[in-house]
Amino acid sequence: MQNSEAMALSAALLAAAGELTQRINDGVVARGFEGMRPAHGFAFSRLAPDGATVTELAAHLGVTKQAASQLVDDVVRRGYAERRPHPGDARARLIVLTERGWACTRAAEEAAAEVVRGWGDVLGEGGVRVLWDCLARIAPYGPLRPSW
Questions:
Q1: I need a labelling partner for 111 at 20 to 30 A (CA). Which of 12, 30, 41, 101 fits?
Q2: How far is Cα 38 from Cα 31, in angstroms, rounded to an integer?
């Protein structure tokens, strides 16, 4: 593959990821979760299973602890998450999603499903499965994070 072709493929993948992120966020907002930004969704993906500390969230997002702390302050103030004592570290606080945070996460899942169904209209069901298989083989297994 020529360098220019590699750059074009890279640009197409980045454009698809950006479009997917924006459409999921637009779907979340359309479902009544005003003021949400893609950064919130990337944070919720780390908080969703069992919660996380601010330090763990910062590492997941690739930001400073101060930036992660500001994001946590915002989602706590808006009722999407709460701070709890950490079960294994008395000095740390565990940030967990509230029912409102889980509802927002479900809205993101619904919006993502709509986008992927649209891909099926373009690529066909088999094409979406091939895309999924290919991406699963090359995609990193690291944290989902925005490209700040």
A1: 12
A2: 15
Per-residue model confidence as pLDDT tens digits over 110-122: 999 999 999 999 9
Q: What pTM was estimated for this model as a whole?
A: 0.86
Three-class DSSP labels, the chain: CCHHHHHHHHHHHHHHHHHHHHHHHHHHHHCCCCCCCHHHHHHHHHHCCCCECHHHHHHHHCCCHHHHHHHHHHHHHCCCEEEEECCCCCCCEEEEECHHHHHHHHHHHHHHHHHHHHHHHHHHHHHHHHHHHHHHHHCCCCCCCCCC
Alpha-carbon span 141 to 143, nearest angstrom: 7
Q: What burial letters (b/e) apply to 46-56, b meaning 16+ CB within 10 Å? A: bbeeebbbbeb
Q: How many Cα neighbours within 13 Å face the side chain of 48?
A: 17
Query: Which tokens in the block code for residue 52?
Result: 């996380």
Inform me whether the pLDDT recorded for 141 exceeds 90: no
